[in-house]
DNA sequence: TTGTATGCGTTATCAT
DNA sequence: ATGATAACGCATACAA
């Protein structure tokens, strides 16, 4: 169980531990005699030397660990983001510590402290609501931070996300182009900027087309299947017999929940109702009807966030940048031309 | 940017850093004068002291970090497991480093070394194929290790998983009870013990009932949607006009892929074909037809793994234990009585 | 109750 | 090309 140290190798070889350290260091190996280097490498191999990142970190002031904060690991949408982060970080020799806030502000603050105490080299945060703005701004002052997926306008924090407003517009234009004139929007928590952006984009495009639109904003806390059911129920209640035919759900979970509730009320999708979701979560393509949705480039966002974080570590003074990717409309079976 | 140390607080207060250390230590605070303790706490607050886990870890020989190894972060099935791990670890004040092997043995070995160099206190591993057996056994000798979800029979490693054979039996019995006499099994990679176990259980139950069963084992490397399509294609080719009517897919992805291919060939589920999946991945309940599947207690496994790991850290000498949870049949719409 | 001294394993500086 | 030495920040054994 006792682990092998530099000193062990040094004694074994009759050299000094600093020589061993140099021989093993990727960028200082040239400062050492090739012959000794060989002996060191061999001894390290034989003795099973593994290094000690903790000690190295203490000495160098760098841990090689990145704190990653997500809202909910259960949300299927986060999988691709994490894959992107993981593969991006892996290339740089960095390791992610993963934490989950459950979308709670208190938890977010606690986690930030923990990560800071761990001396993470940087943080990638995909969680955070409007109430967390101050916490995150303070965080970004202490450690290189990049916001991924979710953004905070004018926060001065490096961000890689995508254009939610454009996504909202895409959804509206798609429904309008199919001839739907009576629209509705099932809204996610508006204190998360992503949803607010989608709302704005959708509303703009609807207004520009002089179409009619029912906003269903029940201030749900989390955008889940159940929330989707509830929003749809409200919509049906509100509109009695004269339902909108084109519906934009601000994420896929809401869309699926809404679709189910509608079906229970005898409304078929896409026959009676066209529904557009958001995110393009895995498996949405395999629902029946397959969900028309706005694809958010989740993997790419994760990947870019990881790369940005690496450059930020190299150059902490670097001024904040913002990368904004584009959403994409994915037309499947849940939307259809309005019947004449 | 310069961070506050114990020494800073000590100088600020005119006491020794060891006193500050004691005052701040949860289990040694009683060794210090309540009055000084108060002053220390206040000063720590004012100066923004955060501690340094790296230094603490080096000194105490404990990092409070757990290495978590998964095969594929993109697999929707892993979400609930991670949630379980995360919440279980959180309660113990431990933090997870997440890594991904992409189901590659080389990558697994590399990752083990990285985690060991990080001096993680323990490892939770949900990845690993038969070829990795030796690597994992060696790993478990160096650091407390718990295998989660996937198991290695007689490895002597603490494991929390569930009974795959029972799950396979459940699937077979369900199909048989519906009157299906011609069965087929779409097999996942058999060098992963989970799949081998499901195969065994299913085969046993089929044999016990004297039923007919076509095994489709194309030695796929990963159990994906595409693999499911391929397996189903093979099955249809093999069986020409006289298709089995009861199909067990060894995971949900295979089931979904198979269902799609069958549909393209004019076979409807559940009218012509009953299909049982495995895992109960999120959203399977919302497919059409909703997938009948075997529920694997993913969250509970993750949670238990985290708790086991914590006890293992406290008591490293503890002999390996094995926790085996039970699968559960979830009947939905993709299976139906055979038509007479 | 508090202070002193030491070492965890590494790396950087300085000298040889 | 290599060795000696110090320091990173903390926790502990021991002394006072």
Biggest sheet architecture of chain A:
6 strands, parallel
Q: Provide the gyration radius of chain A in Å.
A: 26 Å
**Rough shape of chain A?**
elongated
Number of DSSP strands of chain A?
A: 12
Flag low-confidence runs of chain A. none
Main interface: chain pair and counts: A-B, 50 and 50 residues
Terminal CA distance of chain A: 77 Å
How big a fraction of the residues of chain A is strand?
15-25%
Q: Which strand order do you get reading across the main beta sheet of chain A?
A: 2-1-3-4-5-11
Give the SSE order of chain A as H and E letters.
HHHHEHEHEHEEHEHEHEHEEHEE
Mean pLDDT rating of chain A: 96
> What oligomeric state do the depicted chains represent?
homodimer
- Judged by helices, strands and strand pairing, the structural class of chain A is alpha/beta
Total of helices of chain A: 12
Helix content of chain A: 40-55%
Record the SSE blueprint.
Two copies of one chain form a homodimer.
Chain A: H1 6-13, H2 17-24, H3 34-47, H4 53-60, E1 65-70, H5 78-91, E2 95-100, H6 105-117, E3 122-125, H7 133-142, E4 145-149, E5 158-162, H8 164-177, E6 182-186, H9 193-208, E7 212-216, H10 225-239, E8 246-249, H11 252-264, E9 274-279, E10 292-295, H12 298-314, E11 322-325, E12 328-330
Parallel strand pairs in A: 1-2, 1-3, 3-4, 4-5, 5-11, 6-7, 6-8, 8-9, 9-10
Antiparallel strand pairs in A: 10-12
Helix pairs in contact in A: 1-2, 1-3, 5-12, 8-9, 10-11
The structure holds a DNA duplex (16 and 16 nucleotides).
């Amino acid at each position: 169980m006792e682990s092998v140290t530099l000193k062990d190798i040094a004694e074994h070889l009759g050299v000094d531990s600093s020589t061993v350290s140099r021989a093993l260091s990727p960028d200082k190996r040239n400062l050492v005699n090739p012959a000794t280097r060989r002996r060191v490498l061999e001894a390290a191999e034989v003795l099973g030397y593994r290094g000690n990142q903790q000690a190295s970190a203490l000495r160098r002031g760098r841990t090689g660990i990145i704190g990653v904060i997500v809202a909910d690991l259960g949300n299927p949408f986060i999988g691709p983001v994490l894959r992107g982060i993981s593969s991006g970080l892996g290339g740089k020799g960095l390791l992610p510590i993963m934490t989950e806030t459950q979308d709670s502000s208190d938890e977010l603050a606690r986690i930030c402290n923990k990560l800071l105490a761990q001396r993470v080299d940087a943080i990638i945060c995909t969680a955070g609501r409007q109430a967390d703005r101050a916490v995150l701004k303070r965080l970004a002052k202490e450690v290189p931070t990049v916001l991924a997926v979710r953004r905070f306008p004018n926060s001065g924090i490096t961000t890689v996300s995508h254009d939610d407003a454009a996504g909202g517009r895409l959804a509206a234009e798609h429904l309008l182009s199919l001839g739907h004139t009576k629209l509705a929007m099932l809204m996610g928590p508006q204190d998360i900027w992503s949803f607010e952006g989608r709302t704005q984009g959708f509303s703009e495009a609807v207004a520009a087309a002089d179409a009619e639109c029912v906003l269903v904003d029940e201030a749900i806390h989390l955008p889940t299947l159940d929330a989707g059911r509830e929003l749809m129920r409200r919509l049906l209640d509100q509109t009695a017999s004269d339902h909108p035919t084109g519906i934009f759900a601000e994420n896929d979970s809401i869309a699926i929940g809404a679709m189910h509730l509608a079906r229970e009320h005898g409304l078929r999708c896409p026959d009676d109702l066209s529904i557009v979701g958001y995110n393009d979560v895995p498996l949405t393509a395999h629902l029946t009807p397959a969900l028309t949705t706005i694809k958010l480039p989740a993997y790419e966002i994760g990947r870019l966030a990881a790369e940005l974080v690496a450059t930020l570590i190299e150059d902490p003074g670097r001024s904040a940048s913002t990368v904004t990717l584009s959403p994409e409309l994915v037309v499947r079976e849940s939307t259809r031309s309005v019947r004449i």
